[in-house]
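New to this. Help decode both lines:
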Amino acid sequence: MPTILRIGAFRFFFYANEGGEPRHVHVQRDSCLAKFWLDPPALASSTGFSAKDLHKLLDMVETHRKVVTEAWNEFFAR
């Protein structure tokens, strides 16, 4: 499960067995977890995060979309 970014308490990652799905990123903080599609950036699912956190996370995903997309493409091109 490659970690792509750490921003404060948030860890951005994807699972190595999800290459068959559309590009996305998971974000975790403690026991909270969310999944965001990248093309276009949108919330896919969430458990534990508040609406305020999810809005903040979507902004982060949009800001770092290029880095996350490049990491996804590089990892799954193997």
